[in-house]
Specification:
The protein has five helices and three strands. It is mainly α and about 100 residues long. It has a domain of about 45 residues. It has a three-stranded antiparallel β-sheet. Strand 2 and strand 3 form a beta hairpin. It is elongated. This is Helix-turn-helix domain-containing protein.
């Protein structure tokens, strides 16, 4: 039985004991993984394209793009309230239509 199964089963009684050093090591690992993921995302060579620009480029409405996003057919990135697309991902995703 793995840890996930132990945690998800309410019938199991689980007690974890963690010392400060182990907890600090765990926090450092999470911070490093998060930083690496953010750095990888930042190093995308393409500048993001706004939703309005994508609509103009492909002759699609914002509602159509929203439908594609909800269906998982179109990858996107959100910065605050704005939605952006990376050209490389956009080319791959739009080639399927």
């Amino acid at each position: 039985m793995n840890l996930t199964e132990l945690l998800e089963n309410p019938a199991n009684s689980l007690r974890l004991e963690v010392n400060g050093e182990a907890l600090q090591d765990f926090a450092v690992q999470i911070a490093e993984r998060t930083a690496n993921r953010i750095i990888k995302e930042i190093q995308t060579p393409d500048d993001p394209i706004s939703e309005k620009e994508v609509c103009t480029m492909f002759g699609k409405t914002r509602q159509t793009l929203s439908k594609y996003r909800k269906c998982g057919k179109l990858r996107y990135h959100r910065i605050g309230r704005e939605i952006y697309y990376f050209p490389k991902e956009l080319k791959e995703d739009m080639a399927n239509f």
